[in-house]
Design a protein that fits this description.
Elements lengths: L26 E5 L2 E5 L3 E6 L2 E12 L6 E14 L4 E13 L5 H14 L3 E6 H7 L19 E5 L3 E5 L6 E3 L6 E3 L6 E4 L4 E7 L2 E5 L7 E3 L4 H4 L8 H8 L11 E5 L3 E5 L6 E3 L5 E4 L5 E5 L4 E6 L2 E5 L7 E3 L28 H9 L4 E6 L15 E3 L6 E3 L6 E4 L2 E6 L2 E5 L7 E2 L22 E6 L3 E6 L6 E4 L2 E4 L8 E2 L3 E2 L10 E3 L3 E3 L43 H4 L5 H10 L6 H4 L7 H4 L2 E2 L1 E2 L7 E3 L5 E5 L2 E6 L2 E4 L7 H44 L10
Parallel strand pairs: 7-39, 8-17, 9-16
Antiparallel strand pairs: 1-2, 1-40, 2-4, 3-4, 4-5, 5-6, 6-7, 10-11, 11-12, 12-13, 13-14, 14-15, 18-19, 19-20, 20-21, 21-22, 22-23, 24-32, 25-26, 26-27, 27-28, 28-29, 29-30, 31-32, 33-34, 35-36, 37-38, 41-42, 42-43, 43-44
Helix pairs in contact: 2-10
């Protein structure tokens, strides 16, 4: 993220991290003896930030007419940047090298050459290429299987409406320097003026709703007291300015109805009577005049709705609703075209490419390097620290702070913005932790600090600590074979001098797509009504995950579903904005803790893209080298490339060859898919840049 400064929290990428670019594969590196060509790595295992992979290589040595092909296996550290959708493979350690078409003496010399050169390399790869080629087994967490799937209260209405969620009954707190009181247990701006016995709800610039009873009828008011208007959320970033410039693109409409709730609830709005549209190639219909995901299966005569990644079914729109595991959905769901209007739901349909990639993405960490001397922490408590037991463990956690603090065996561990600290006292002093007890990873989902179990310490030296977190830290969980948002639990909040909310699963119209990740939205809003979410500092922590994290604050408006462009292929700008907010290591608080790019790293060999070479060479698990041509697969032999078709073989050999060909085809298809995803991302990047340069604003996937 190089241009937008988000909510005053994010720095430009260039201010703290080197720009990493995947210019395409294969890569080549000049060495004194000639050129080393490395084809796109084929990852075999990813644990934390340690990557194990193999790759086909070609050595073009001076004085030799033919290149020498071989296979290498290596282990490396994976430094990721989810905001830029790139990763750097660094610190390579050679595990094995094989040159199948060379004699032992020459192969040994070539191995010695690569063993000397490979550790000097840094290789960049796009996240999309990495994701599609990972050969990982399905990864399930026993703890994640304890997530709740009970449906929230579900309300259907057929008129424009917005759900305003309170965390229980309203809690009022006096506003300093005024006669106003603020409802603090909600991310919306709601103020109460005792002299008028009136509540005011902020909708947009110069636009407020008012009600005498917070549970009563709300209506737009033009008569707003100055002291109320002065407490409106302030514009916090460039996004607000962009949205205001785009008002000419917004659809005018009547003020939406306010539906205020105090329990976990989801609101589904259709504009008028539900309008059903068929999905090509299936027995499914979808409701096209809603921003929610509502489908109807004709044969079953059942409605299906998708909420926070979970499917619920019912015979009537007014319920009752029951949870349906993705594996038990009718087969028609998997036949929904990816580029259709309802391609947005495929992440929640097991077996689809979108679902598989989403699960893999949830296992790739965002990484960083913390400098021990620079990293500081102060924990704010509401009064004296108060601890409660964590069910099923010998640990306890502090309930009256926004920072997760865990007490275990007379020591204290705090996780602040995805960095672990430790201390001998709950008040500190805190120092960066080089390790944490394994017991911490047994914290169950019913505990409100469950998300810290997704933050890891990979390695520590006297100077730095390598850390990272997977998306579970920001409430994305792998549940069976798909991803869901939130644990499904309602957690009791803390209320004293301050208000500490806990992560919420329901009430914010959460939806997902590959470019923007999870985003909060409004049930329905149009015209000038924006209903800023989270625009104030009256509470500590957030409904959306750790500490000061507000990565999902930007919602989307009516018109979210715009097919290929704005649904599955979400707009690049919105995706970049949200992705950067998901990188906890990019905010100012963490910036002071992270290491700057080292001079030594700058001197490492940077493999450049070989523009005139095809990325069609693969190494199989045995280390044999193959290439894909228009006529099929060819194998590298001592006599050069030989077609694999028509080779005489025994039945057992034929079976093995067929299996190998299937594996190679899967690798080839995955590489093509990664190329396509990367190309699509870069295309949106160029369009976004062109749009900004010309002063135009583009829609797509984001709030409009």
């Amino acid at each position: 993220m190089t241009a937008l400064l988000l909510a005053g929290l994010l720095l430009p990428a260039s201010a703290w991290a080197k720009e990493v670019s995947d210019g395409g594969w294969p890569h080549e590196i000049d060495i004194p003896q000639g050129v080393v060509v490395i084809y796109q790595p084929q990852p075999e295992k990813l644990e934390g930030n340690r990557l194990e992979a193999r790759a086909a290589v070609a050595l073009e040595l001076k004085g030799s007419e033919e290149p020498v092909f071989g296979a290498i296996w290596f282990e490396a550290r994976l430094d990721t940047d989810r905001a830029e959708r790139t990763a750097t493979i660094t610190g390579l350690t050679v595990k094995q090298i094989r040159f199948p078409d060379q004699d032992d003496e020459k192969a040994q010399k070539l191995r010695a050459l690569l063993e000397k050169e490979i550790p000097k390399w840094d290789l960049s790869i796009s996240m999309d290429r990495l994701l599609t080629t990972l050969e990982m087994e399905e990864k399930r967490s026993d703890a994640a299987l304890e997530l709740k799937t009970d449906p929230p209260k579900i309300i259907f209405v057929s008129e424009p409406a917005v759900l305003v969620s309170l965390d229980g009954e309203p809690r009022l707190q006096k506003e300093e320097g005024s006669n106003l009181q603020r409802v603090i247990n909600t991310p919306f701006t709601i103020l109460y003026l005792p002299s008028k016995k009136t509540y005011y709800l902020y909708a947009d610039t110069d636009t407020w709703y008012a009600a005498k009873d917070i549970h009563g009828d709300w209506a737009v008011t033009r008569n707003v007291p100055k002291e109320v208007a002065s407490r409106a959320p302030k514009a916090e970033d460039e996004t607000d300015a962009e949205e205001r410039k785009a008002k000419d693109e917004e659809e005018p409409g009547p003020p939406p109805k306010i539906i205020l709730v105090t329990e976990p609830t989801e609101l589904i709005v259709s504009i008028g009577k539900t309008d059903f549209t068929p999905i090509s190639g299936t027995d499914l219909l979808y409701v096209s005049n809603t921003d929610s995901d509502v489908l109807y299966h004709i044969k079953e005569k059942k409605y299906y709705i998708l909420l926070s990644g979970r499917w619920y079914a019912g015979t009537k729109l007014d319920g009752p609703w029951r949870y349906v595991p993705g594996e038990k959905l009718p087969p028609d769901f998997a036949r929904v075209p990816e580029d259709s209007e309802m391609g947005t739901v495929l992440y929640a349909v097991p077996g689809t490419d979108v679902a598989k990639e989403a699960v893999l993405d949830a296992q790739i960490p965002q990484t960083a390097t913390v400098e021990r001397k620079k990293a500081k922490l102060e924990v704010e408590y509401d009064g004296e620290p108060k601890f409660e037991d964590i069910k099923g463990t010998k640990m306890s956690y502090a309930v009256n702070t926004a920072t997760p603090v865990i007490r275990f065996k007379k020591k204290y561990y705090a996780c602040d913005e995805a960095v672990w600290f430790m201390a001998g006292s709950s008040r500190g002093p805190w120092q960066v932790a080089s390790s944490i007890p394994e017991e911490i990873y047994t914290i169950p989902p019913e505990c409100p600090i469950y998300n810290v179990t997704f933050v890891r310490i990979y390695k520590a030296t006297p100077e730095v600590v390598y850390v990272g977190y997977t998306p579970g830290y920001t409430n994305t969980y792998v549940y069976h074979t798909t991803i869901v948002y939130g644990t499904g639990y309602w957690y009791p909040y803390w209320y004293g001098r301050y208000y500490y909310p806990r992560p919420a699963t329901w009430g914010f119209h959460v939806r997902w797509n590959p470019r923007t990740g999870w985003r909060f939205g409004l049930s329905y809003s149009n015209g000038p009504f924006r209903f800023t979410i989270g625009g104030g500092g009256w509470y500590r922590g957030g409904w959306w995950g750790p500490g000061r994290y507000r990565g999902y604050r930007r919602g989307y408006r009516h018109g979210y579903r715009r097919g290929r462009n704005a649904g599955y292929r979400a707009g690049y700008r919105a995706g970049r904005r949200n992705a950067a907010q998901q990188n906890m290591y990019r905010n100012k608080r963490n910036q002071a803790r992270m290491t700057a790019p080292s001079t030594a790293a700058d001197k490492r060999s940077k493999a450049g893209a070989a523009k005139k070479r095809d990325n069609n060479v693969f190494a199989d698990r045995n280390g044999d080298v193959h290439r894909k041509t228009d006529k099929g697969w060819e194998s590298r032999t001592k006599d050069g490339w030989k077609s694999e078709k028509g080779q005489p073989a025994k039945a057992q050999q034929q079976k093995a060859q067929q299996k190998q060909t299937q594996q190679l085809n899967r690798s080839h298809q995955a590489r093509q898919q990664g190329d396509k995803r990367t190309s699509s991302y870069k295309k949106e990047q160029r369009r976004s840049h062109s749009s900004r340069s010309s002063g135009r604003s583009r829609g797509g996937g984001g709030r409009r």
